[in-house]
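User: I'm putting together a teaching handout on how multi-component assemblies are represented. Below are the sequence lines for each component of a complex, exactly as they appear in our records. Could you produce the 3D structure of the whole assembly as structure tokens, so the students can see both representations side by side? Please keep the chain order the same as the input.
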Amino acid sequence: MNRREAVQRISLLMGGVALSGPVVSGILGEKTHFGDSVYATPQQEKLLAELADVIIPTTDTPGAKAAGAEQFIIRVIRDCHPMEEQKEFYASLDTFEKDSKAAFGKGFVALTNDQKVSMVKKLIETDRNFFKRMKNYTAVGYFTSEIGATQALEYLETPGRLEACIPIKPGQKAWALG
Amino acid sequence: MANLNIRATEENSYDAIIIGSGVTGGWAAKELTEKGLKVLMLERGRKLDHVTDYENATKAPWEFEHAGLMTMEQKRTHPKLTRDGFYDATTDGYWMKDVDALYHEDKRFDWFRPNIVGGKSILWGRQSYRWSDFDFEANAKEGIAVDWPIRYKDIAPWYSYVEKHAGISGEKLGLPQLPDSEFLPPMEMFCVEKEVRKRIEKNFPGRTMTIGRVANLSEARKEQLGVGRAPCQYRNKCRLGCPYGAYFSSQSCTLPPAAATGLLTLRPDSIVAEILYDENKQRATGVRVVDSETLDEREYSAKIIFVCGSAMASAGILLNSTSNRFPNGLGNDSEQLGHNLMDHHFHVGANGKWEGDLDKYYYGRRANGIYIPRYRNIGKDKRDYVRGFGYQGGGRRGDWKHNVAELSFGATYKDAATKPGPWTMGLIAFGETLPYYENRMYLHKTDKDKWGLPLIVFDAEFKENEKKMRIDMANDAAEMLETSGLKNVKPYDTGSYPGMAIHEMGTARMGRDPKTSVLNAHNQIHAVPNVFMTDGACMTSSSCVNPSLTYMALTARAADHAVKELKKKNL
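Assistant: Of course. Below is the structure of the complete assembly, with chains in the same order as your input.
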């Protein structure tokens, strides 16, 4: 008996009511469709990368853009938030871009570094929820990326032993893994 | 459907059938096969081979698409499991989906059911503590429920037996309320924990704090190396399955020796629908199984049956096993089956900040915390509730997340995030729950799941004794942390529902009298002595310490008894 036949038997158990397509595919473990997701436009993608890079810039280690944090942010907004929050997120991003144009006559990507910083400071006042969400996902995306985990932090896959109370080494970075 | 129903035949016959492959099923398999029995183990979950099937265990953080954040799809398919934090995206593939494995709630019950061979032995927290006579005598002394039919001396040698094989790391304390195990070396405490321990012992006579007693190999001895296990590598990814076999799971610890006998047949994807009973023989004769993938039905027969499917599922199987002799469920003469449901209540304690030790750090990720053994209602201490609680918890030093909620950004933020953060310490209490007859699970009369089995309904709640205890659980934690010098100490009680602590117990309790209990002193159903139940269902009270080690010891003890009785032809 294959899986589809098994599903047919389930429909018999449920009183012989024919199951609709989406229900059957759900039982079979296939991904079902729950309406559209919001996908970032290429412009929004660029903008997210720049904004993330202001939050976690390149210092003596590469920053958020180098680590591809914007790809993580787009994925998490798409897969981990209901439609309403997805729309809200991108509406905030669009407003941020508009504010940049209003303030400096240019989109955020084209601003100087100082102008970018002043825009983010303003953002903290005008749309704190968006800033917090953006900062949180930038941080998660960055510090769990290969660049963030292995260069900005100290990465050790298999410690092999435990020393729970030792003097800290000079310049010790935080462990990447918890 | 008749053509799918394969009757038990010679080749479907075994000496023993074990229902479930988790902590207790694994032990039953090891003990029974090593004593020469031909064993069939039935597991409703999917195959999960040791090491090679631990898909997420060796992944780097950047190999997880969403860094472990919950997706909408996971929330949709696990509406109940996502109500609490134990289910997460990295262990997603190990759990049943709520949308398939349905159950009803007259009152909220968080039911955590793995969908894998090894069951909760893969996912458990590994905290391992002996019970004491404070626990085994409590019901009799206080006139609550029924008396345990055993005492500490009956189980003590079996604790030793399972501990030597499983490997329990911990520190000897010599406490009567928390007897010592056969320990591997204890894991080390963080600096903050060492200091807090000193201050608790100084300021609160009768209280102590020790490192968690945990089923991780702080050192692998001959017993463990012999079954292919290696010492703990301090990766702290135990829940995903350990590629080193360094913690106790069925896969690492009990199934390899069982398989080595050549006497074990393991069938995953096999849901036991009922236990079959022969009225003439007055014995169970076998089981009816539904294949979880194909829905084919099959029967298997055996001389003895070990029911090790976890407390709620095991009681559900018995309730669904009806006959003329047992119209309300197999062995349910007492009408106690499904009743006296218990779980520990928790999600209450305190946290604080430790301002010292900024020049101290650690190497290795300790998959363990601290433990404060019960001190309430012991000796001269008398509270306005009975029984008590213990604390788990521990210190930790902040990682890159420590300043993520701040409004900072840029190089200053990044620099601070990449340095170790402040130390904090938290205590979380686990409290004993009394056995109340009215706290129960039962089978729905009409609603069935996609495998054609009646849905389990939960109707249980924490009551006055637990509520009074929770006040101490929060206040004592805050008092101990504050007195120990932690700053900004905050007590919390975020609420606890039965099932959440995943220490569910009591639905087929042991007892001395067949009129008031389901199982006897050797975990046999009083009226059907060739059926043994050794998982959490058998527990007569709940203690406040983690129960798995006790289930292991009871299983090994019951298996020993079963084989002796088989040889005497009593079964």
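A couple of points students might notice: The first strand of chain A starts at residue 163 and ends at 167. Confidence is low (pLDDT under 50) at residues 1-35 of chain A.
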